[in-house]
Structure formats: structure tokens, C-alpha cells
Design a protein that fits this description.
By secondary structure, the protein is of the alpha/beta class. The chain folds into two domains: 211 residues, P-loop containing nucleotide triphosphate hydrolases (Rossmann fold); 101 residues, no CATH class. It contains eleven helices and twelve strands. Helix 4 packs across helix 5. It starts with a strand and ends with a helix. The relative contact order is 0.14. It binds iron/sulfur cluster.
Amino acid sequence: MTTLRAQGIHRAFRASGRPVRAVDGVDLSVSSGEIVGLVGESGCGKSTLARIMVGLDRPDQGEVWLDDRRFVRPDGSVERALRHEVQLVFQDPHASFDPRRTVGRSVGMPLRAAGVGRQGARKRVIELLEQVGLDPVLADRLPSTLSGGQLQRAAIARALAPEPAILVCDEPVASMDVSVRAQILNLLLDLRRERGIGILFVSHDLGVVRRIADRVAVMYLGRIVETGSSEAVWRLPRHPYTRSLAASIPTGSTSWRARGSVPRLEGEPPSAVDIPSGCRFHPRCPIAIDRCRVDDPVLRPFPPDVEVACHLAEQAGDVA
Ligand code: SF4
């Protein structure tokens, strides 16, 4: 089993001369054979974290490990020999393919880069396209002639070419209609089951994450505020932010939902330039108390496998 593990990741950018704390002290791991959902609103830092975990962006602090091998160092340099182990699938497949190259050539590029000959790469590309449910004739077509769903499958085939242990999928179904989305999610579930691949699935949609993830991490303004097994977090979301996200899922009955204990999520997330004092969720939290404005909560364990960063997380059990 291979585990990709981000430790103590911080990442800030500058906007109008001021630092934007996109990722603000995050630990996260995903192992082969499991699907971990990373969920949160747009701008919460989840895509930045995902890019750091595949070595496409550098952390300001922290490291990324593959088992006991350092993959991304604190100075941001990446261990090139490990790059093939972790592959990224982007949100927009049309933007991730060169429009002048055939799909087959793009899918085969990682193989050619690894020294595989032309014939061998072609044979492998055909196998990969078949594995993701595509007709191999599409190998000779340009990306613009494929549908979004077909091209996302081709993107997944390209990501599989180096035989990675871990796939990081950044909003891979965000722009797709319901039936195509279901097909891509089923494909990812098949890859996990049949190839034992680990998947970090990044999404703003807790409903999608709930459907496929074994574990979930909820991110708000650069921090993980709740994490645990998908089943436990869904059964009793303890953080008010998680409850608000979960309440937006139209299906599923739970005791906490039935008893009307769902806080309304007010307003837009504050800017990561001006992160609120204390609990960063307090300006939007319907149950905030005075302590929340000054005391920054840390993740605390709730057995068997949940961690929550909220001073009032115990109260969730009272209302469930
Ligand atoms: S610590 Fe306070 S403000 Fe933050 S989520 Fe919990 S109750 Fe709300």
C-alpha cells in the first residue's frame, strides 16, 4: 500500500501586495485503495492543496511524503523519480489537451517520455482507452471532436499511463451533466476496486463526495475543519459548516436533518486576505459564542475516527 501524505502545508500568494493565505496549516493523506473527498466552497484552498500534493505547486512550509520517501521538500523542490506515482486529473479536459495533437498522442506522451517506443506506446494507449471505456478509434481524433465526458475519460487514461499509485482529481465532474457525471464517478470507483488506486477527489459538491468517498475532509478558508470516515461525517456532521454543506444535499434522511438542526449558511466566505480572528468561520456561524471570536479551534478527535475544529462540536450530539 502506498500513502501520499501532506504535512503542515502552508501556501500564501500575494494579491494587491497583500498575502492571501490559501492553505494555512493542513495535514492530509490518501492511500492506495481508498477515495478521500476534499470538499469546500470555491476559493477555500482545496485546489492549491491538490496541486501541492502532486508537485505542481510549492508549499511555503510543510512537506509531502510518499510512504517514507520525501516527494515535495520544504523548499518546494520535487523528487522527480517519484512524479509518476502521483498524477493529476484536471477539471476542464479541453484545456488540458493540446488541440493540435491527436488524443492518442497526448495519452501516450507520458509513455514516450519514459522511453517506451512508438509501437509499444500505441499498443498501450489502445489498452488504456479501452480501460476507461473509450472506443480506440478515438485515439486518432483531435480533442475538439470528443465530448466533455469522452475527453475526461481520455484525461484519466493519460493519468493512468505512468501507472500511478495515487490519482488526484480536481473537480473532475464539475462541468458535466448528471448522466456523464455518473459515468465518470463509476469509472473512478472501478479504478479503485480493480487497480487499487488511491484517489484524492476534490469537489465543491458534498453530494458527489458522499457518493464515492471512503473518507472526507472539509476545508474552510485554508484549513481542514472536519475530517473522518464519510459514513460517520454524514451520519453526524459536527462542524456547523459541514452541516450547512450536508443540508444542501437533496437526498438522504438523517436524524439531525429531521430534527431541524441545520444552521443556515449566510453570506460569502470572507477573503483569505483578511482571515477573521478566532474561529475563521465565526462571521457566518449561526451558533457562535464570544469565545469563537478570539479562540482559534484546533482539530479534536471524536472517536472512532472523526476530527473536528469547533469549540461546540459536542453539541452536535445533543441535537442529533
Ligand atoms: S468554533 Fe464557534 S464559530 Fe467556529 S464553528 Fe464552532 S461554534 Fe461556530
